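yo

u said u wanted the structure for the complex thing, so here. seqs first:
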Amino acid sequence: MNIQNIKGIISFEPTRNLRNPLIIIAIVFILVWFLWICLYLIDNAETIIRVVNQSGGRTELFIFAILKKVLDESVSNLLTNHSPLLGTFFFFSLLITPMFGILFSSDQTASDIGRKHIRFLLPRVNRISLYLSRILSTWIAWSIIVLLMTLIVTLVIGLSRTTDLTGPLILFGLRIALTLSIYGLPFIAMMAFANSFTSSAAIALLLGWAFWIITTLLTWIGGAFGDEYEYIQFIFPSSVKYYMLSDDITVVLGSIGLTLLYSLVFTALGWLIITKRDL
Amino acid sequence: MNALELINISKSYSGKLALKDVNFVLEEGVVAGLVGPNGAGKTTLFSTIAGFIAPDTGEVKIYDQPLNSLGTLKGLLSILPQDARFQKGLSIRRQLLWYSKLMGLEDKEAYEETERVLKLVDLVDAAEKEGDQLSHGMHKRMAVAQAFIANPKIVLLDEPTSGLDPANARQIRNMITRQRGRQSFMVSSHNLDEIADLCDFVVILDKGRVIESSSMAAFVKEESLISVSVSEMPSKSQITSLESMDFVKSIKVSEDSQRLAIIISDGYTEDPAILASLATKLAEIQVKFTGMSKGSTLEERFLEMTE
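structre next:
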């Protein structure tokens, strides 16, 4: 691992990413999503606030309210203790992060391996530097996008309801951005792992989404048989999302720790493969 | 000094042998040719040296350092891989500039180096194109250009002139010739005349094994053999007459009866007069010959060894 090499690769990533069709599609989807949620929250602001105030957050406003977990105490607290609009945005954004995170990070090394372009790179940078640089640069790009989008949503929500643009709202916005940034990391690491053994970004993407969908289905099916089967969900990093909504700092720190653990495990698995496989 | 050393390299894919106990040394500043029939393992060997694939057994050493222990090959080794393609959506100039920076060059140096290698392959005007927009020949030259960035000590070129027109092929050969002695090269090609002209050393690979590695002069037996091209097969008595000459050790007739390989006795290998003596004798015994040269061609030796 060489810091100069890592810097050399990361500095080129914006140029590379902005010419990568999959990443462009991911950015477009993310922007459309943020625009939609922004408009949805503004249009339904009065209703959301009224219902939250009446029900103490145990709202069935949302499509996802059919999920048992939506009625979880942490979600209720999130909506009642903070801006209900931004809280709603936070909850939905966490739900959608696996999909966008997987899409956004689906081409880290796969197309380089597929086109054998990696053979132009390897005499200049070693495998580990390349692998880690791609994880890091993808995470930086992801973090910049969620930070900007969250700040915009926060400002739009605050300015559309002038009394709401207060210090606590902005701090809550920053917390959301930071949480989304950290929560994206295990999916990026998971896709780095998927990239390490495929030579196609599309296959890596399908594997990532398939893993997400299968784990979710297994969790639901398992949940029907008994609470103990809910532990199936911990195969996939999205299991930490409800803990990230908590206002209890120890719970949040625990969830961040678990997130980092997922990230480390996926990174290590990919590391083992990329250092051994024929390129 | 040894630039590159391969020690007992073996590699197989799904039980199929690709390389078996490959050993050879590339000395610093030498241009070595790697030749072998299709499927002999040349590309696998290049990929092993460059670290793209790991050998099942054996070790690659670069300047006496095991490849595995080197953090990076930067500045030590570059390669023209046979099947690599440039990144999509980016101009070649931009990619070469990036490679230059990855070699540790600062912005200005990297820019100058990019332009230098583009000029080397005479493709400055095409540098704004993307890799996929280039013709096969242009792509190959661009790929050669990237291998020359920052003049690494060892350059591996896997079929650098295949698919190139004669002028561009000569340009690539001239690039290698100019750097002879300053960089070490290992070049694979099916053009054996090219390898014979370019290389000081030759490695013959067949079915994954090195069947010969020696200096080019020794391999083509420059000092101990005279090839005589004949337009008509000499008679037995003519052959006997030639064999009676002092410096002739033995004579072999090629399968097509177009060539005599005259092996020179040890004491005469450096005698400058033997070609003239032989020509006189051939004329005297009325053998119809069209030419003669010292040594075999690489092609002849290669076919002799691999058929």
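Chain A is about 75% helix and 0% strand. Residues 63-70 of chain A have pLDDT under 50 and may be disordered.
cya
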